[in-house]
Structures are given as structure tokens and as C-alpha cells.
TrEMBL record:
Keywords: FAD, Flavoprotein, Oxidoreductase, Quinone, Transit peptide. This is TIGR01244 family phosphatase. The keyword Oxidoreductase applies. Residues 10-111 form the Beta-lactamase hydrolase-like protein phosphatase-like domain. GO terms for biological process: sulfide oxidation, using sulfide:quinone oxidoreductase. It comes from the Bacteria. Its cofactor is FAD. GO terms for molecular function: FAD binding; hydrolase activity; quinone binding; sulfide:quinone oxidoreductase activity. PANTHER family: SULFIDE:QUINONE OXIDOREDUCTASE, SULFIDE:QUINONE OXIDOREDUCTASE, MITOCHONDRIAL. It holds the Pfam family Pyr_redox_2. The keyword DNA repair does not apply. It comes from Trinickia dabaoshanensis. Residues 132-251 form the FAD/NAD(P)-binding domain. InterPro entries: BLH_phosphatase-like (IPR005939), FAD/NAD-bd_sf (IPR036188), FAD/NAD-binding_dom (IPR023753), Prot-tyrosine_phosphatase-like (IPR029021), Sulphide_quinone_reductase (IPR015904).
Amino acid sequence: MGTQFVRHDPTFSTSGQIATEDFAAIAAAGFRSVICNRPDGEGGPGQPTSEAIREAAKAAGIEFAFLPVEPGRIAPGQAQAFGRLLQTLPKPILAYCRTGNRSAALYRLAHTAEPVQAAPTVAPACTWDSSFDIVVIGGGSAGIAVTASLLRRQSGLKIAVVDPRDTHDYQPAWTLVGGGLFDARRTRRPMSEVLPKGVTWIRSAVTRIEPDENRVRLDNGQTLPYRDLIVAPGLRLAWERIEGLEQALGKYGVTSNYRYDLAPYTWELVRSMQSGSALFTQPAMPIKCAGAPQKAMYLACDHWRRSGVLNRINVEFNTAGAVLFGVAAFVPPLMKYVTRYRANLAFSSNLVAVDGPGKVAHFDVTNADGIVSRVAKPFEMIHVVPPQVAPDFIRDSQLADAAGWCEVDHATLQHPRYPNVFALGDVCSAPNAKTAAAARKQAVVVAENLLAMRAGLPMPRRYDGYGACPLTVERGKVVLAEFGYGGKLLPTFPLDPTRPSSLGWVLKAKLLPWFYWNGMLKAREWLTNTTV
């Protein structure tokens, strides 16, 4: 079966479109019911009908329910009907649509829906007026920074920020959490505390952007019109693309610093490991913070070295790429640490499956002739970095480029076909490193260029591709990698950026977390000059 199951609780999972021949795998996975949320005929002649799926389910001894929902048009009555199915159908239940997003949204809404009232159950086509000057999709680093920058320049702007999350995370510190050097609780704050004062927070998820109509559709069935749009939802961690990974995370020695709840488990594994095989992985680019996969390895190795057990641990770094780091100037100092820690490098080695109970990882390894072979590697500990993609509502929209990212002019960060749309942060197509440091400078570019566009003036700012990746190579030392488009070095301080320094460590571990909460998210724009 090509489609992967995404588990939401012990009795409910979602998936993308299934086929009639998938029911052997569905039954083998233990599902007793299937819900179809995709209308018949939505995907053209190749899409199996609900009746064909019903017959296949019946033959497999599985209950079937048909609750079709159009993308971006989930009505309260449909969420309540879905909730009734969750209560009455035999469990566990698998729900599917084209990508799984509608089914997941129905699941969330079913758990928050009000009891059925006598009032109409279908929400109006549009429940928001056109009073917002700007709609910002995303309440992460990029979304809040650009919102704060806009309000700093024009305090009277009416801005809506769309984000369903209750909390906001300082993700750059999760590598330190995984190294036992930072408290995870200090990386998370309530969203209500970090949103700039005066904005409207719309606590919903976006399901579709319709740029020709200047509107956004939400997972609660509402439609949000906009005059100007800023796209900053970040990227999606595609855990499901590695077979068996989601079921193994947080146990069996399988961990990842890319999740708030797992970074402490990384440290638990590191400090308890005395011998055996430790694998670290990196998927194909682009990913969030390209140095984070190897930073996890360096901090673990430094702890094992200090504890006197490094010579009993086989360390291996498996990367889907062909080089250790994309900016050549930083490879020599990093290689010194690879040698120091006796780590083995496995290039063109892409993680495709994890057998948690068996403690075996499976990699597709490409040789010099382009021939791919499947290689199994046992482990006591494995730190996994998942593949990373644009959110589906971007990939499926008219805003996307060929790779699925929100297309922008690399200098102005304005969409090339929709001038009232700008994008920044991890979702935008600019070929820069996807880091919070990049979003900090992009926020100023977008804020000033958008306001100039609204005033009919030339856009004054140009983004040079700046990104920063503080590479923590050992406790107390950091290679402060700062660079722009084409790998051009863009150091902030007059020091050799390729040398590990204690100053970089102070910045990474002490100053930057404080500055993030009190500076970047408050539109204190020190050292952000990007005009060319």
C-alpha cells in the first residue's frame, strides 16, 4: 500500500486516497471501519468510487461509511456527523480523503463541536467581513515577526493572524535540549502571550488559498477575505514518509530533536548509552536548519567523550546528500570534529524505514553509478530528521512553484503573479537556509515592501539570502555559520566565521533565546539592514 496511515489516537487514523486493492493491508493493520470523506468524481476518472470502496470493504469484513466533504467547506453539521461515526463505528477507524487533511480536520472539529441545536447547521459562505488590511497565515517565528514589524511601522493596521496552535515554540533551542543543555519548558509559551497586541487571532487551520478571489478557506468552514496576504505557515514534517517511524518515535531508542516532546528523550538516550551503535540521519534538502542533524551528533559525541565511553560507541551520520554541509567554507572545521569523534560518514544514504522493536533502520544507498540498494543497519539509538515539505494547502494552490513551495521573487519576497501576496520563512521558495535567523531579516523586507506596495511606492528592501546556523560542535564551542545566496559568507562580527568560538556558544545558548522572545518577536530589528 503506497498510502501511509497517520495515527491520531489509539482508535483513529487517517490516510490519503486508498484503492480497492489496499484492503488486505488495511485489514492487516487491524482497522475495523473505514470512512470516506472524499466526494465521488473529485479527482477525475482515476479515482475509485465510494461504492467500489464500499464493496471492497465489505469483502474484507470492514464497516464503511460515506461522508463526503468539499475542500475548505466543512460545515458544523458535518463535524457533528463525523463525531457520531466515531462513536458508533467499530474501532479502530481509518478515515481518508485525497491527502488526509479533511479527515484530520473533521476529527479535530468533532472533538470541539457543540451539540446539535435547532439553529441552522451550515455556516454562511463568509463569516468574516473585509475589514482586515492584512491577513497573515502562520503564528510561528516568521508570522509573528512580520506582524510585529508591520505594526511598528503602522500601528493602526488591522491584521488577522491565522493559526490553530495554542502554543509558540522557540525551536532553535531543541538541539540544546537534546544535548542536556537547555530546559524544554523554556522553549514554549502560550500563543496568546507572544502575538502582538491589537491583532485578531483566528484559531483555525487553512485548507485552501484562492488568490484569484483574494480569500482563504478555513477548516471550520469559514471563508476569510483579504486585501493583502502574507504566507508564513512554515513547513510540514513528513514523518509518515519513513515507514514505521511514527509508531517507533519516543521508544525503542528512536528519537528526534525536531519535536518538542522528543528532544528530552534524545538526552535520556545519550546520557544512558554506554556502548553500541548510534545512528544520526539527514533527509534530502531543503530542511529546517540544515545543520541541526549533525549538531545532534556533535553534542552527543561530546558528552560520550567527556564520559569516557565514546570509544565503545559506533557513531554514523547518514545523509541523503553528497556533502557534509552545503557551504564549502565550513566543511573543513566540521570534518575536524567528525575525525575527533571517530564518526563514520555515509553519504547518499537515505532513511526509508524504521523497525523499532527490532532496532533496525533501513536506508536506500546510492552508489557512484546511481544504483540504489537497500541496506539494513542495527542501532541502540537513532536520531531521525524527517523529510520536510510545504503544507498541502500551499502545494495544491496557485501560489506554489514546481517544487510545491510558495513562489516569491528572491529579492523582494513578493509573489511574481499575485502582487498582493508576500511570503517568508520556511515556506517560501527563496533558496536560502530555512532558519529563524533568515526569518528575522525577511520580516523587515516583507514589512517595508508590502507597505510601500500599498502606498504605490517602489519597494525599498532587497533580501540577500541571509541565514545563520550556529553549529554546536561541542559544549562551549560553536561554528557561527552565517551566509547568503550562493554560499556567500555574511558574518555579523569581525571574526573568522569558520573557527569554533566560545562567543558563538554564548550567543547560541544565552543571548539568542532571550533576544528571540524580547527582540525578534517584538520588532526590535537590530542588525537587519538588507537594503541594496
